[in-house]
Amino acid sequence: MTFGKRQATSFGTKSELSVERRTPARRGGYWLGVVTVPTTFVVLMFGAAIAIGAPIDTTLRDLPLAGLTLAVAAAIVLLTSDFALRALACRSPWIYSLVCGFALFGLCFITPVPPHYLLVMALLPGLAGGFVLGWSRR
Questions:
Q1: Measured between alpha carbons, how far is 58 from 54 in angstroms, rounded to an integer?
Q2: Tens digits of per-residue pLDDT, 33-45?
Q3: Helices (H), strands (E): how many in the chain?
């Protein structure tokens, strides 16, 4: 009985004590974050269209294309911010949320849409997508 002493192993094999336990990498966080952005956008815009009394047929025709366009922009923003925050070893979901939300807001700021509309159209979906991405990276 050795009671805490490590036993010698033969050359070339690893003992059970020297093997590091690593948590498996979580997969799917990036794609789930990218899907969250247009989903949040479509839900918010559909709710706003119903609230102001816009015609449903026009709303249903225009929202999918706008959501797809936002998804393309979100894919670029989420991927870039994911690489940058991983390089900085930052794993907090709220930091991912803030970085992705404000980056998407800044990217969409060059459009002719007024800034107060962009808060709902870009910032909130970016915050939601960034939080989902950050949650999967913690």
A1: 8
A2: 999 999 999 999 9
A3: 5, 0
